[in-house]
Amino acid sequence: MGSLPFFLPFAELEVGQHLYWQIGNLRIHGQVFMTSWIVIGALLALVVVGTKKMERDPRGVQNLLEFLWDYIRDLARTQIGEKVYRDWMPFIGTLFLFIFVSNWGGALVPWRLIHLPSGELGAPTADINTTVALALLVSLSYFYAGLSNKGLRYFEYYVHPTPIMLPFKIVEDFTKPLSLSFRLFGNILADELVVAVLVFLVPLVLPVPVMFLGLFTSAIQALIFATLAAYYIGEAVEEHH
Amino acid sequence: MTSLLLFGTSEGGLFDFDATLPLMAVQVVLLTFVLNTLFFKPVGKVVEEREGYVTTSRAKAKEKLSQAQRLEADLKDQLKEARQAAQKVIIEAEQDSEKLYREALALATTEANASREAARREIDSQKEMAMNQLQKDADQLGDLIVERLLAAK
Lengths: 241, 153
Hints:
Structural class of chain B: mainly alpha
Oligomer: heterodimer
Order of helices and strands of chain A: EEHHHHHH
Number of helices of chain A: 6
Largest sheet of chain B: none
Shape of chain B: rod-shaped
């Protein structure tokens, strides 16, 4: 499926092809890193411009940054709780911003105009490596949050409210990262594929509503990922009585 | 062919895990720390400072309001007292003037009575004098008539 049998000059579908970079004996997906650097660069540029001259009466980009900060604080505070949300706010916020900008970047920037020798540019979150990396970070952080807040008493959570829950809770530790990563990966990849297929079949007008739907999905997925990450951390630090 | 590509062959595929995964994780962790320094801390500081400023301003305004209300109540009390004092002064003045009026009236009445009494007494004595005189005159006249009559006889 690298290129469909009837090749057209304006659109081409490539699935599962990557631009490999070799670093020592490690192989990495170059196109994912290229777009992720652009995403990170855009984020850093926004943040640097917005915090350059901060005032008590906010102006310009500072308003946007404060809105984002407030949004992330509310998200973290409602899910994690008043006591420790401050420690986890940067992590939750980074997840949200990185995923959101990646998704919207993938949906809005016409990456396909840039030709690569192999594979094509797109949202970094449409690559399973990225989403699994993010999901594993979430797993690590909720374990860390639970252990650092409650010590070994964290494992009481596994037999709460009854020891019957133990196998389910253990299974949950595997299903959490699995569902987190596959939900994000599936949604973003499916969106890109649907848009690509529609552009391939009907290049005019028809893909536009699907693109808007894609923007919506992208934003929702970023919110879901960040909310669930915060919820898992909140669940780990919650005190049972 | 498609399924082979989807589930990974020696080269490529949708589920092609490699060093991208750990490197991306490291990248995101680094991004977290960078954003914490560049974004979350400074913006949080500004927002929380503003929240503190708003809270203290509100508290100050509330304090001022209660002070103003206290002052208002104080002044109202003073006003009430002043009104009461004024009312008392007016009543006293009215009573004073009433008393003066009554005194003057009583004095005038007694004086008038006295002068009337005096006048009456004067009239009475004069009337009596006149009656006496009349009586005397009548007696003389009577005597004279009697004399004349006797003389004529």
